[in-house]
Amino acid sequence: MAAAGVWLGGYLSYGNHDNIRLVLASFCAALVCAAGNALNDFLDMEVDRKNHPGRVLPSGVLPSYVAVLAFWILNGLGIILALFLGLKFAVIVIFAVLVLVIYNFRLKKTSLWGNLAVSLLGALTFIAGGMAVRVPNAYMVAGTFAPAVFAFLFHLGREMLKDLADFDGDLGAQYKTLPTVFPALAIEYMIMVIYVVVILLTIMAMTIELYRPVFTWIVLVGVDVPLMILLVGLKVSKNKGKYALIGQAMKALMVVGLIAFLAGRP
């Protein structure tokens, strides 16, 4: 998703579309994201023995030192590549690396701050894509700002769902995530508010014709309607496994949203 976000941000920014630069920038994002995942898996081995026992580290398929090596090597390659692509892009990449490290060691164990950090990084991929193709003040460009807001809110809601799904393991590890502080029902309402805002923002984008008509059809049929169905399921279902299932469905809707931005580019 990080690589796709960077590529799409560059494509939508109306800048000098150097395909090689976009491909390299996307690859750089994939390297840094993979490094962050490796560190996360290493630090979460004990928690994952309960939450996700089938993963390669808690199951013993790979030794833990492989994750540590992957973290250093992937980040090193990502930063070198980022410097080659330009100072502004490199600053964002280094910032992302630092946020991922702070997130893994501290923020993911706290209420909301970890969710906000992941959401911010998801949004920054689009801004980074604009900077990779040398668009001045890429954060000001409508083509990157709109999908960045979409990504931020979608990630935020999905991270809350993941916290609800991982409640037992996080509680055992003494993490202070949202479900360990607030009742599940309260968090469900927070999630519903976030995604209602997403729907309202997509309707606003359609109304002001920010993108081509195909954007409207893809978003209505592929994002907004399924999103409303999922929110009803979140409220009505009493099955504890609903959080993981809805979280996976939200990830699929994020992909559809990216396709909508891609197809609807003016």
Describe the structure.
- This protein is an all-alpha fold and 266 residues long.
- It has a single domain (2-263), classed as Farnesyl Diphosphate Synthase (Orthogonal Bundle), CATH 1.10.600.
- The protein has twelve helices and no strands.
- The chain has helices at residues 2-12, 19-43, 45-51, 64-85, 87-105, 113-132, 142-165, 167-172, 178-181, 184-207, 213-236, 242-263.
- Helix 4 runs antiparallel to helix 5, helix 6 packs antiparallel against helix 7 (142-165) and helix 7 (142-165) runs antiparallel to helix 10.
- The longest helix is centred in the first third of the chain and has 25 residues, at 19-43.
- It is flat.
- The protein starts with a helix and ends with a helix.
Topology at a glance:
Layout: H1 2-12, H2 19-43, H3 45-51, H4 64-85, H5 87-105, H6 113-132, H7 142-165, H8 167-172, H9 178-181, H10 184-207, H11 213-236, H12 242-263
Helix pairs in contact: 1-2, 1-6, 1-7, 2-4, 2-5, 2-6, 4-5, 5-6, 6-7, 7-10, 7-12, 10-11, 11-12
- The CATH C-level name is Mainly Alpha
How many beta-strand runs?
A: 0
* Total count of domains: 1
Reported CATH architecture: Orthogonal Bundle
Secondary-structure element order, N to C: HHHHHHHHHHHH
Proportion of helical residues = over 70%
By DSSP (H or I, 4+ residues per run), the number of helices equals 12
Span from first to last CA?
Answer: 23 Å
Q: Give a quick account of the main beta sheet: strands, pairing sense, barrel closure.
A: none
> How would you describe the shape?
flat
Uncertain regions spanning at least 5 consecutive residues? none
Multimeric organization: single chain
User: Which structural class best describes the helix and strand composition?
Assistant: mainly alpha
Radius of gyration: 19 Å
In the CATH hierarchy, the third-tier topology is known as: Farnesyl Diphosphate Synthase
The percent range for strand residues is under 5%
Mean pLDDT: 87
